[in-house]
Amino acid sequence: MENHLEPSVTYPPRRRFLLCALRYGLGLGALWALGLSLRDGIGPKVTITKDNALVGPWDWSISHAPKAVAVVTGLDRAACFAAGVAALGGIKTFVSSGDRVFIKVNAAFASPPSLGATSHPDLVQAVVRHCREAGASRVIVSDNPINDPASCFRLTGIAEAVQLGGGELWVPESRRFQPVTLPDGRYLHQWPAWAAPFRKADKVINLAPVKHHHRAGASMICKNWYGLLGGPRNLLHQNVHVVIGELAALFRPTLVVLDGITAMMTNGPTGGSLADVKEARTLIISPDPVAADALGARILNIDPHKLPYLHHAQRLGAGSLNLDAIALHHISV
Asked: Higher-confidence residue: 50 or 289?
């Protein structure tokens, strides 16, 4: 009987090695693609409970970030940001190609930029544009305003600034709020928050104005996280310093940008008159939110050591009040 089976093929040793290497590489590539498709992107310490609650803290900081603060003097916000972030190593130190970036602005009130109650559109546009130029795949800008969100984003100029910079504006949707919890925190347990913008962020930038605050003393970077909370968040004001400290521990950003080009010196956080605002010509940029707020307090003529929330934030590991241990880069534009 004839044997109709194909004869076995024996390849030379070098070719066998190349074929094995090819199969191995294809297998690794498939595993990498599967891992990328399943990537959640929220950070290494996140836990989602059975009732869809998010348990932090969430740490978007980067290990190679400089222990430094850039203090830039000038009036042109875009130029000040460019100079300040360059002093810290450039935007690519903080944002990598393909990153999904969430920029947390302050859009709490439906007021024009001149009153200093919200993030200035010129700065928003500049930060969004820098992130896009660094190769960010998406730049999402959002907040949960006190007044009507659509009106706030429009009247503050933030909506147009995001569009011009090449970002995406996300207006809060009640169905996409989720409860958040800081383990061992006293007040942030199962508290509803506007979670969608940061759920899949690779990097987070907190961008806030320097303002007086009638309860907290100051509203700057750490206080800006309040804008992610939903529910009756005014109830938390009774323990505002502890809550701000817990928020700073819960959300640990990649970079913070504190706008003291103009500062609200009185009647904060809403203001309402140009008489409440002074030209301070200072933009503060740092990976350390506590250090940034400490320097911002000086703009308000406040001793940072007399802001209890900064001590709470430092105790919880959110940053340092010891400015002597941080490199300060003073730049004029």
From this structure: 289
pLDDT band at 49 (very low <50, low <70, confident <90, very high): confident
DSSP H/E element including 329:
strand 327-332
Gap between the Cα atoms of 321 and 304, Å rounded: 8
Q: Alpha-carbon distance 83 to 78, whole Å?
A: 9
Residues 106 and 156: their CA atoms lie apart, in Å, by: 10
- CA separation for the pair 296, 117 (Å, rounded): 15
Statement: residue 215 has pLDDT above 50: yes
Secondary structure letter of residue 205 according to DSSP: E
Tell me the DSSP string of 40-87. --S-TT-EE-TTS-EE--EE---TT--SEEEEEE-S-HHHHHHHHHHH
- 269: its two tokens: 């956080």
Cα distances (Å, whole numbers) of residue 261 to 22, 28, 80, 111, 333: 57, 51, 9, 17, 12
Residue 144, C-beta contacts closer than 8 angstroms, at least 6 positions apart: 172, 194, 227, 228, 229, 230
323 vs 321: CA distance, rounded Å:
6
Q: What angle do CA 233, 239, 242 make, to 5 degrees?
A: 105
CA dihedral 236, 237, 242, 246 (to 10 degrees): 50
List C-alpha distances in Å: 67 to 17, 84, 109, 309: 48, 14, 33, 21
In what helix (H) or strand (E) does residue 248 lie, and over which residues does it extend?
helix 240-250
**Cis before 269 (ω within 30):** yes
